[in-house]
Amino acid sequence: MAKATRMTKQKKVILEILQNTNCHPSADWVYEQAKKLVPDISLGTVYRNLNVLRDSGEIIELNYGSTYSRYDGKPQNHYHFYCEKCTQLFDVAIPVYQGLDKMVQDTTGYEVKHHRMEFYGLCNQCRE
Amino acid sequence: MAKATRMTKQKKVILEILQNTNCHPSADWVYEQAKKLVPDISLGTVYRNLNVLRDSGEIIELNYGSTYSRYDGKPQNHYHFYCEKCTQLFDVAIPVYQGLDKMVQDTTGYEVKHHRMEFYGLCNQCRE
DNA sequence: GGGGTGAGAGTAACAGTTACCGTTAATTTA
DNA sequence: TAAATTAACGGTAACTGTTACTCTCACCCC
């Protein structure tokens, strides 16, 4: 049987913060926001719950583009754009190429479960 | 004028190690290999040169899929497959989708310079 | 209410990476 | 080719993001 997991106040707050933001925040940013709602929350708790939520598929961890992980409250696969100047992450509104996994599986013989794609360049504000 | 940059024995060794391997090693693995050729090389020197070579476009830094960076001596863009069991990285021999950057640029308005794609799943050895 | 236990707070430890500083050696100039 | 210049070196300490530890708390079922 699956391990029991409780929905604590802290975990709920962390999940809601991620679901209600369009940015792709770091653990530290989540911690700062969570402190406003649960003043004595611990940074360790934030990290623990981010990992728990990631393992249960409720959020996505984005660990590329910089030295720290960012988190995304939308668990559906989608692509991202990383601005090389301001280091912000943006969602890219193009459809996920569903057939790609099977194509790579047929080419390589590996069992392909999913893929990720990121685009790099300059965002609108940083273009000039 | 561009800053002068020297081709030292250490830098040369690091670049050759990366160009002559098919794996996608960590800085530490490169360090171990380099020590065989330059016994008193320092880990700091390995990191410094990996960053220099990455900045000059001679190698690629792959900073996703685990807690440490891996390096790839082939600077041409290509896709990678990450085995979620044995944590090895493999090259994927499908052509890079060149038109994608332009398509995303037209969709988003961002200036797209390049993209990366990684596939996740199980490699041949880990499938059974 | 009492016993069991998953999760919390607080903090120490850890890993990968970077920065510092005195020294060495690659390159330039003569 | 020898001297001068200075980027890069080796060795090490520090830094950063993350995880682990320990003790305590709060929830749940009877």
Describe the structure in your own words.
2 copies of one chain form a homodimer. Chain A is an alpha+beta fold. The first copy, chain A, folds into 2 domains: 1-76, Orthogonal Bundle (Arc Repressor Mutant, subunit A); 77-128, Dna Ligase, domain 1 (2-Layer Sandwich). Chain A is 34% helix and 21% strand. The first copy, chain A, has 4 helices and 5 strands. The first copy, chain A, has helices at 9-19, 27-37, 43-55, 100-108, and strands spanning 60-62, 70-72, 79-83, 89-92, 111-122. In chain A, the strands form 2 sheets. Chain A has a 3-stranded mixed β-sheet with strand order 4-3-5. A two-stranded antiparallel sheet of chain A has the order 1-2. In chain A, a hairpin with a 7-residue loop joins strand 1 (60-62) and strand 2 (70-72). The longest helix of chain A is centred in the middle third of the chain and has 13 residues, at 43-55. Chain A is globular and about 50 Å long. The mean pLDDT of chain A is 90. Strand 5 (111-122) of chain A pairs antiparallel with strand 5 of chain B. The structure holds a DNA duplex (30 and 30 nucleotides).
